[in-house]
Amino acid sequence: MKEFVISEAKVETAVLVGLITQTQDERKTNEYLDELAFLAETAGAEVVKRFTQKLPTANSVTYVGKGKLEEIKEYIRIEAEEDREVGMVIFDDELSAKQIRNIEAELKVKILDRTSLILDIFAMRAQTANAKTQVELAQYKYMLPRLQRLWTHLERQGGGSGSGKGGSVGLRGPGETQLEMDRRIILNRMSLLKERLAEIDKQKSTQRKNRGRMIRVALVGYTNVGKSTMMNLLAKSEVFAENKLFATLDTTVRKVIIDNLPFLLSDTVGFIRKLPTDLVDSFKSTLDEVREADLLVHVVDISHPGFEEQIEVVNKTLADIGGGGKPMILIFNKIDAYTYVEKALDDLTPKTKENLTLEELMKTWMAKMEDNCLFISAREKINIDELKSVVYQRVKELHVQKYPYNDFLYQTYEEEE
């Protein structure tokens, strides 16, 4: 059976394709393509060109219009003549089996969509048996409705109604038979993986019950906002942190002690726009840490131009997985990397978000969130003492509510005069 994802990181050249639609303006499309380029880079590809087209909605047959597809095809042909072969074309939305089949037939190169690219990165990042099982299940869920495309080499053998039209005598059906066989193999494999994940869920649930009478705090946020760096600071641990998307797949739980108060801190997988539903379903056991947390620490990259939309994406995903409505602290990270565009003195137009200084932005959000937001730099260790103080106060409040008769495990004693 043909593979549909990159199995290992290779330096391949990639072309990106996105749409400007009624619900997605040019600025947003360019921002999404920036993120898609970062995803491609994380997967090991080098982006050499971007194509965008303005359409009311995606074309149901080829995603983009016929003229734009011809333009992409011509670019690939010219690059091939110059010995700069394009390895793949990546589309910024999930494609149907029909769309992939039609685009492949026209462009004659590997076609990936946003979902298959994210799945590939997850497959590359998965380290533990738990993560590998979750990723494999998500890949099979993605592959199942697209099986027919993977067997296009058998098309000339299939079909035929018995009237002599559209098929060869003695060669009718084997393509379909093989397709059904693969479907059955995949369904059986998915069933086995679900059983494994159910076992893992049971083990994880038992582990969570045995963690004692401690408040659980979960770090949540968009991918690549600095959650793992923050985890390392608070827990004095060595969780893998890298400036790439989805550097953390497996949930890491550490016992943290601030002053006299112990609590459990978990670092979770980052969220992203257009996160495949199959991934959310497959990562149930990982996301249970978020669902069962007493306090969420939502980490935001304030240096990212679209951080407000990232906050919305995270809040929506939390609501989707049943983690909404929990006590939350908003932590704006990477203040050391924040930049703004200073307005000219003679410019009388109203200030936009891009023109706000860090101080002005801080006042805006602190007024909106009251005492539930902080501004820090985990990398440069700016305002970390304030972060520890706020987390301590919030955890202490929750601890007293949840375990009113349980003394803190670590007492501090002031020396008597």
TrEMBL record:
<dbReference type="Pfam" id="PF16360">
    <property type="entry name" value="GTP-bdg_M"/>
</dbReference>
<dbReference type="InterPro" id="IPR005225">
    <property type="entry name" value="Small_GTP-bd"/>
</dbReference>
<keyword id="KW-0460">Magnesium</keyword>
<comment type="subunit">
    <text>Monomer. Associates with the 50S ribosomal subunit.</text>
</comment>
<dbReference type="InterPro" id="IPR016496">
    <property type="entry name" value="GTPase_HflX"/>
</dbReference>
<dbReference type="InterPro" id="IPR006073">
    <property type="entry name" value="GTP-bd"/>
</dbReference>
<keyword id="KW-0963">Cytoplasm</keyword>
<keyword id="KW-0479">Metal-binding</keyword>
<dbReference type="GO" id="GO:0003924">
    <property type="term" value="F:GTPase activity"/>
</dbReference>
<dbReference type="GO" id="GO:0005525">
    <property type="term" value="F:GTP binding"/>
</dbReference>
<keyword id="KW-0342">GTP-binding</keyword>
<dbReference type="InterPro" id="IPR030394">
    <property type="entry name" value="G_HFLX_dom"/>
</dbReference>
<dbReference type="Pfam" id="PF13167">
    <property type="entry name" value="GTP-bdg_N"/>
</dbReference>
<dbReference type="InterPro" id="IPR042108">
    <property type="entry name" value="GTPase_HflX_N_sf"/>
</dbReference>
<feature type="binding site">
    <location>
        <begin position="221"/>
        <end position="228"/>
    </location>
    <ligand>
        <name>GTP</name>
    </ligand>
</feature>
<dbReference type="GO" id="GO:0005737">
    <property type="term" value="C:cytoplasm"/>
</dbReference>
<dbReference type="InterPro" id="IPR027417">
    <property type="entry name" value="P-loop_NTPase"/>
</dbReference>
<protein>
    <recommendedName>
        <fullName>GTPase HflX</fullName>
    </recommendedName>
</protein>
<feature type="binding site">
    <location>
        <position position="228"/>
    </location>
    <ligand>
        <name>Mg(2+)</name>
    </ligand>
</feature>
<feature type="domain" description="Hflx-type G">
    <location>
        <begin position="215"/>
        <end position="399"/>
    </location>
</feature>
<dbReference type="Pfam" id="PF01926">
    <property type="entry name" value="MMR_HSR1"/>
</dbReference>
<feature type="binding site">
    <location>
        <begin position="267"/>
        <end position="270"/>
    </location>
    <ligand>
        <name>GTP</name>
    </ligand>
</feature>
<dbReference type="InterPro" id="IPR032305">
    <property type="entry name" value="GTP-bd_M"/>
</dbReference>
<dbReference type="InterPro" id="IPR025121">
    <property type="entry name" value="GTPase_HflX_N"/>
</dbReference>
<keyword id="KW-0547">Nucleotide-binding</keyword>
<dbReference type="GO" id="GO:0043022">
    <property type="term" value="F:ribosome binding"/>
</dbReference>
<comment type="function">
    <text>GTPase that associates with the 50S ribosomal subunit and may have a role during protein synthesis or ribosome biogenesis.</text>
</comment>
<feature type="binding site">
    <location>
        <begin position="246"/>
        <end position="250"/>
    </location>
    <ligand>
        <name>GTP</name>
    </ligand>
</feature>
<comment type="similarity">
    <text>Belongs to the TRAFAC class OBG-HflX-like GTPase superfamily. HflX GTPase family.</text>
</comment>
<dbReference type="GO" id="GO:0046872">
    <property type="term" value="F:metal ion binding"/>
</dbReference>
<feature type="binding site">
    <location>
        <position position="248"/>
    </location>
    <ligand>
        <name>Mg(2+)</name>
    </ligand>
</feature>
<feature type="binding site">
    <location>
        <begin position="333"/>
        <end position="336"/>
    </location>
    <ligand>
        <name>GTP</name>
    </ligand>
</feature>
<feature type="binding site">
    <location>
        <begin position="377"/>
        <end position="379"/>
    </location>
    <ligand>
        <name>GTP</name>
    </ligand>
</feature>
